[in-house]
Amino acid sequence: MESILRVKNLKKYYKENKAINGLSFDLYKGEILGFLGPNGAGKSTTINILSTILKHDEGEIKFFGRDIKDNKKWIKSQLGIVPQELAIFEEIPAYKNVEFFTSLYGLRGKELRNAVLEALKMVGLEDKKDSKPLTFSGGMKRRLNIACAIAHKPKILILDEPTVGIDPQSRNHILESIKKLRDNGTTIIYTTHYMEEVEEIADRIVIMDSGTKVAEGTIAELMESYRNTRMYKISIDSTSLSPIYKNKIKYDFLYEIEGIQKVVFADNCFSITTIKEIENLDKIILSLIDRNLKISHITSEEGNLEMIFLKLTGKKLRD
Amino acid sequence: MILWTLIKQDFRNLITTPVIVTVCMFYPWLLVGMFGFIFSSLYGGDGVTSYDYYGVTMILYLIISSVTVTPNTFMENKLRQGNIRIAYAPVSKVSIYMSKIISSYLFVGISFSIHMMIMNYFKIVNFGGDNFSYILVLFMVFLLFTVTLGGAVCVILKTEELTNMVLSNISSILAVLSGMFFPVDSLGKVVSNLSNLSPLKWILNSSFRIIYDNNFENYIAIIFGLILLSIASLIIMHMNYKPEDYI
Question: Which tens digits make up the pLDDT trace of A17-37?
Fold first, then answer.
């Protein structure tokens, strides 16, 4: 496959803090690359660097073989960006929004009109083209946000959590639109907090944590690497949780049990990654009961992306 | 072409901002009418009415208050969102900030010019009669300075609240010191000396000299000084404006 974006050893510092620390990956033509990472992993910083808005400190970025440093304007013309925040003017009609932003890419006249209408149709807002975004639901605004980024037909579309806080219907519409764009030849970088979205649309995944890449591959490849693991989710009755906070009891004791690889505690729930062949659930339960922790619910999962993510980063995706 | 597209959009944004529309459309008449009426008994002896005096001073006051218009086009919450996407487009940073300066200048300049022309034509306010065009040029150059200064301060401070607070306070202090609301010479020598340092007072004095004495002393120097200060503000803006600060 042809690599149209190559990122090598990317570094970005904010004073002492390394926001991006040696990130490398490729983006191949026609794919949807899922970008996953907990908050603070460096996803948005990476996207701002790729969109040429933010300067990087070290490393190399090449779009279509051209270095980002010397070809900013040209690279910008090849990109469509859907930022996390809505980037639209709420006081002017949807059509005028898309028309204005698309005209900044040099489109004029009939070509511009057609492009705007096509983009609005793609996101299902053609009926609302004369309405102001002020009157739109959150989901409709998000769809308009996407329309503004795709009307000039970018070769690469970068979406930074485009479905945050919207209704399932709008989310489905957005995901379908993204798949359609991919099928029409657009290459896509997609960051999200929703694991199921990545599983649904991404061809490959890059998992980031603390400014660096911790895993990369297709979902099948990542699953294969972790096919011998299982995750128990053990919910704890909140009335029994006070010792954990008051006495600062950590859950290192769980690592003493054979087979356990990773333990994360969040939202009153232990997420425990363990080797599948080793039956250790009884020991885990006994260990928790010994510490006066009341178990309210237990589930067992095998081979899903969330488990892989948890194991790699030690955090839940929405942390 | 891109710059023109940006200017049109920024102009459209200004038109849909109620506060700015109110200030530009109604405040000149409101302030001139109000101050003119309240102090009407104190004027009129030598042919200068309170409306003549407060017509000039209040338009100047509104021009210096326009220092907050440019920051609004950069950082007002509802506009900030759209500005983010402009930064992602293949548009130079010069086009981005220049469009905001030019649109602010055009919007405020056109509205105040129309008010001044109407007030002058119908003799509601004496803006110089035959010398009206000189007064208009002086005021519009002063406006150029205020919109560029607003832009320079906002790219340095980077937050709307702080920028508005700083600029509003500075413009109010300069306005009070200039004596446009009430004479400050009677407040003591220190205040009087400070008053002479207010550029607004220089412009005010120059305006009245042109209107009533046909005296153009310091006119060119003030115009030239304001243009130089505007250029300095633009240079500060160019050096400090970073699109990523608004993301």
Answer: 888 999 999 999 999 999 988
Of B9, B13, B87, the CB nearest to A53: B87
| Residue A205 bridge partners (DSSP) | A34, A217
- Give the whole-angstrom CA distance, residue B182 versus residue B14: 32
> What is d(CA B57, CA B182) in angstroms, rounded to the nearest whole number?
11
Test A83 with B85 for CB contact under 8 angstroms. yes
Take residue A19 and report the two structure tokens written for it.
């926001």
Q: Is B146 on the interface with A (CB under 8 A)?
A: no
Strands (E), A106-211: 156-160, 187-191, 204-209
Please name the residue of chain A whose CA is at the shortest distance from the CA of residue B87. A53
Answer yes or no: do A88 and B79 touch at CB < 8 A.
no
| Strand pairing class (A269-275; A66-67) | unpaired
* Cα B216 to the center of its chain, rounded Å: 22
What pTM value is reported for the model?
A: 0.82
Which residue matches tokens 């997420």? A271
Amino acid letter at A206?
V
B91 touches chain A (CB under 8 A): yes
ipTM of the modeled complex: 0.84
Q: Give Cα B33 to chain centroid, integer Å.
A: 19
